[in-house]
Every structure is written in structure tokens, then in C-alpha cells.
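REQUEST FORM: STRUCTURE PREDICTION
Request ID: SP-0412
Submitted by: Lab K.M.
Chain count: 1
Length (residues): 106
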Amino acid sequence: MVERLEGMNLRVHCVALGGNLTSPAGKMTMQVINAVAEFERDLLIERTNSDIKRARAEGTRFGRPPALTDAQRSEVLGLLAQGMSVAQIARQFDTTRQTITRIRAT
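STATUS: Completed
RESULT:
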């Protein structure tokens, strides 16, 4: 943003940083701030990925909870085996046809 403003012949002064950000010293200050911000972002990504990996190793389930319990899923498979339609089963369990189709595919 500072570079775009400088391209429009505008000078940016930041009181908190103590001066003109378009000067050589101001540009260096912005580069240091950008480097620290990038470093912090990389650390955050690294910590997040590490925590996700740990949680998966501990068996934590991610995402939305299943629409049907394991017992209901077994019942759905039985009804499918008996020839009941996906739409009928979805209505019976008050869920979507897509949910029943996913169960059938497993």
C-alpha cells in the first residue's frame, strides 16, 4: 500500500513508527516489520499443523458431527438391502438423500 501511494507521489508518515515510510529508513523499517510478520505467520502455521497432527494421533474427530448414529447407519444399510428407496429412508430418518447415499457408498 505504501508503495502504491508513493507511486502516486504521496508520502506516508506513520507517527507510531516515527517518520516517513517512503524514505530509505522508512522502507527499511517496513521491510523489518514485514519480515517479522512473515516469521510470526510461519510460526502460527507450524503450531497449527503440529496441533492438528497431535489431535489426529489422539483420535480427535474433525468436522461436523455425523447426522446418524452407528446404530442408525446399520439400520439404514439393512433397509437398503431390503430394497427400500433412498428417499424413503431419508424421510424415515429425517435426513437428506445425500446422507443415505454416502452411507450406501461405504
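NOTES: The mean pLDDT is 89.
Reviewed by: T.R.
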